[in-house]
Amino acid sequence: MSASEIGPGENRLSPADRASLQAERGPINMAVAGVLVFEPGLTFERVAARVAERLHLVPRYRQKLDEAPLGLAQPTWIDDAGFDLHWHLRRARVDGDAELPGYVAREMSRRLDRSRPLWELHVVEGLDDGRTAVIPKMHHALVDGLAAVGIGMVLLDPTPEPLVLPEPEEWRPRETDLRRRLTALASAPLSRAQRLVLDSTQRALDTSPRRAAEDVRRATELATELTRARPQAPMTPLNRPISPNRRAALTSAPLAPLKAAGKAAGGTVNDALLAAVAGMLREYLAAAGVDLGGREPVALVPVSIRREGDEGGNRISTVFVDLPIGEPDPAARIATIAAAMRELKGSAAIRAGALLVGATGQAPPVVSSVLVRAMGSVRAFNLVVSNVPGPQQPFYMDGIRMTAVYPAVPLNPSNQGLSVGILSYDGAIHAGLLADARLDPGVDVAVTALTGALTDLTQNP
Description:
Elements: H1 3-6, E1 10-12, H2 15-23, E2 31-38, H3 44-54, E3 63-66, E4 76-79, H4 85-88, E5 89-93, H5 100-108, E6 119-125, E7 132-139, H6 145-155, H7 178-187, H8 192-205, H9 209-227, E8 246-254, H10 255-264, H11 269-288, E9 298-304, E10 316-322, H12 330-345, H13 349-362, H14 365-376, E11 383-389, E12 396-397, E13 400-408, E14 418-425, E15 428-436, H15 443-459
Parallel strand pairs: 5-6, 9-11, 11-14
Antiparallel strand pairs: 1-4, 2-7, 2-13, 3-4, 6-7, 8-15, 9-10, 12-13, 14-15
Helix pairs in contact: 2-13, 2-14, 9-14, 10-11, 10-15, 11-12, 11-15, 13-14
């Protein structure tokens, strides 16, 4: 069913988008962000002008959530009749590079306002040597990592000369007509998948005690089956209950030696990066005085299943990867991870991850919330490691070159105290670590260990 059949100005959320909304409770904040660093010369006024010029290229940025009372029906995106661009643009100043991670941490501790379009753009001046950082922040329901790269590219140019784009038409919000929406749902010819969505919504509107009990039972059974697929991950200092507050850290490394290290060990650059994370955890757990007794920490690694032509929203699956922290040799760690990844990609693991994403969205909202809570109580993994390939050429904003891009990946569920986001850009990889403020040892210990592990790989390919 097309968006026009739902109603003017409306779009359904994907299953994964709805799941990320359900996950945002207690200390969980499902905002994602990127830290784009530019050479000197970029000002707030220039950034604001660029956003205003190109906002029409990202229609979702003028839409907000329309959530049914009590969660009785699935939310949709609708045009925001009160949209005000200036509310979404923020200006700040720091005293040098050392204060930038602190600014990122404070912003990643604050949830986005669900009554408005779920994004902000922060312009942070005062970095070393007159440089400026631009920090796009958006809800995970709005966009996943790969789509975030595409949206970032809308504001950027592949050369110092800005692209010449046609003048946008005047934007007017389209009204939401709920009666028309329900009529269209009832009368339009439906595919099997669409009928499942409609049936789910109808079941959600049935609030009888018997129906509610059945929903809870089904959600619990599904969570149990999913967690039987593998043993529980070992307990580590990363997996204590988290607070709403965050800390952040940033680091970089050259890309070419990492590619060479991966290839030399029979793997890919992604395998080399996971090996570096394993090296990080080896040092981090030693600093914490923790011995896992030969067990291996588990990383949840998102895998894109986005197809050509898909825009916005989430199109991801996930796999669980055991990290060989007991192996001291970086090359051997790469080889071990490469073999494991080849086996995973040839198994049903990716399809199982897609099932998890689909299950939390295709079910009625009450099932979704129960399933998210049930999965959150199981320690299936120790941390999230997200590696997104970015463009390998310089990009510019209003003629000013972008020198680095650091991702920030939200902590979820509530027993996950550290995430590692990695993005490659213009010959380097840039890693953003986001941690619970109470993580002990802290994120500073983790980033020092990751920097050392990356150095070991790049100096000894």
